[in-house]
Design goal:
single chain, mainly alpha, two-stranded antiparallel ribbon, two-stranded antiparallel sheet, globular
């Protein structure tokens, strides 16, 4: 497969990063009662253009929220990215549940860093289909501001 370079710190090595973090998957299933198994899919590539695709149901054996990527290295994944998940969980959980939540300046910085990381990871999961890939400098800038949670230039997060 060749040598992989971390998109965040540019060191050699990869790990499997969950795009949707494990705490969100656990919360969605145990607290909110969502069924996460992916049981729906489209089958048949040779369908007529004027008719809808044939929808069939089958169990894929994994959650819709279990998407992983191999772009970050293990130190990034288990270091600053893991700490970011720990820090954002108490901020984001009430919001996921639809509860009103006042955000402090620090909360907003944590949420902005998390949203940027998560959006970047989603883009890396689908980058082979992008006509214009995400600029790699966004990942570098997020990594550079990982301790202070410095907002990444040209990134806006709307809540």
């Amino acid at each position: 497969m060749g040598t992989r370079i971390c998109v965040y710190c540019h060191k050699i090595g990869t790990s499997r990063e969950h795009v949707w973090p494990q705490w969100i998957r656990r919360h969605a299933e145990s607290v909110m009662g969502l069924q996460l198994a992916n049981v729906q899919g489209y089958q048949g590539a040779e369908e007529h253009k004027l008719s809808p695709p044939k929808l069939t149901f089958f169990r894929k054996g994994h959650s819709r929220l279990s998407l992983t990527i191999g772009h970050p290295c293990a130190p990034c994944n288990s270091g600053w990215m893991s700490k970011l998940e720990v820090d954002v969980a108490p901020i984001l959980t009430p919001m996921i549940e639809g509860k009103t939540r006042l955000l402090s300046y620090e909360d907003a910085r944590v949420l902005q860093a998390w949203a940027t990381k998560t959006a970047l990871n989603f883009s890396y999961a689908a980058e082979s289909t992008f006509q214009h890939p995400m600029p790699r400098r966004l990942a570098r800038d997020l990594y550079a501001g990982r301790v202070t949670r410095t907002p990444v230039e040209d990134v806006q997060v709307w809540i």
